[in-house]
Amino acid sequence: MGTVFRAYDDRLEREVAVKVIKAEIFNQPAMRTRFEREARAVARIDHPGVVAVFDYGEILDEGSLYIVMEWLERLDLARVLQLRGPGRPRDVAALVRQAGAGLAAAHARQLVHRDIKPANIFLTPVPGGFRVKILDFGVAKELSRDSKATQTGMIVGTPRFMSPEQLLSKPVDARSDIYSLAAVAFQALTGERLVRAEDFAQVLVEVVNEEPPKLSAILAQASRELDVLFARALAKDPEARPADVEEWADELAETLDSLHVDRPAWRIAGDPEVVSGTDDEETAVST
Fold first, then answer.
1. For residue 128, is it left (φ>0), alpha (ψ between -120 and 50) or beta?
2. pTM, whole model, 2 decimals?
3. How far apart are CA 111 and CA 126, in angstroms?
4. Same structural domain for residues 105 and 238?
5. Number of domains composing the chain
C-alpha cells in the first residue's frame, strides 16, 4: 500500500517516520476525505500506547498521501515471536494490559482499529520490560460515522485476526478489536496462530463457523479461568463479547500474572534487528 521512510524533522530536531501511501489506494474523493478525517482523529488520541501522529498531507505532483509519525526503535510483535518464540505469561500480561489501554483510548475517541495483529503492535525497551505502541490506524474507522461506509465488497484488515462480523462485511465496533486482541494474545502465549487455515476461503469458514481451540488444549498450564476469558473475547456473536477492551485486558493480565510457564523472557533491548518484509499477512481483500 505504500512505503515508510525514516526522516529527520529539522524544525523540531527529531527523527520521524513518514508513511507515503500510493495514490491509487485513494481512487475516490471520499476515501481521501476519510483518510484525512482519520489522521486527525488518531492525532487526537494522545496516549503512550498509541503511535503519535504529527502531520499528514498530499504530495502534489503525484497525488500520494503521507502521514508523519514518531519513529520507533526495536521490534514489532510479529518479529519478536519469530525470533524469541511465545512469551512468558507475565510478558503477555504486560502486552495485553498496555495494548488494551491504548485501544481503550482509541475507542474513547470513537475509533475502532480493525487491523490489530502482531505486526501492528510494536515493543520498545524500557527498564524492567517493554512499552507497547499500537501502529497503523490507516484502516481505522470512526464509530460515530456510518458503520457501512467501507465500500461494498471490500474487507479491510488481516483475515486471520479478523472477527467474524468483519470477515462478513458486517458493521463493526470496539468488540471487533477485542476479538483481534484475543487472537494476538493467544498466539503470543502459545506460539501458534488461532486460525490455522491458509487461503482466504478456508479462513472465512474457520473464523465464522468453527469454534476456536481452547488455550488449555495447547498450553497445559492454562486454567479454566483463562479458557473462559478467551472464549468470551472470541465469541462468534459480538453481543456475547465484553464491551470494554481495557476491562477484559486487565482481567486477562491479572490471571496471567499468577501463571508460571518456564520460558525465557522476551529480549527487546539491544541493537534493533531491522528486517524488511516480516509481515506476510494480507491487509485488504476484495470479495
1. left
2. 0.86
3. 28
4. yes
5. 2
- Is the same domain home to 44 and 80? no
The reply to whether 49 and 118 lie within a common domain is: no
Please report how many Cα atoms fall inside a 13 Å half-sphere around the Cα of residue 114, on the Cβ side: 26
Give the CA radius of gyration of the chain: 18
* CATH assignment at residue 54: 3.30.200.20
What is the domain extent for residue 54? 2-71
Catalytic: 76?
no
pLDDT, tens only, 239-284: 999 999 999 999 999 999 999 888 998 988 765 554 433 444 544 4
CA 249 to CA 111: how far, in whole Å?
Answer: 18
CA distances for 117 relative to 58, 66, 152, 159, 258, angstroms: 28, 22, 23, 10, 25
Cell of 277: 518484509
**80 and 43 in a common domain:** no
Q: What letter would DSSP give residue 199? A: S
Catalytic hit among 115, 136, 173, 177: 115
Question: Cell 463493526 appears where?
Answer: 172
Strand bridging mode 14-21 / 154-156: unpaired
Cα atoms in the 13 Å half-sphere on the side-chain side of 272: 13
Distance of alpha carbon 78 from alpha carbon 120, whole angstroms = 8
Same domain, 107 and 225: yes
Return the amino acid letter for 29: P
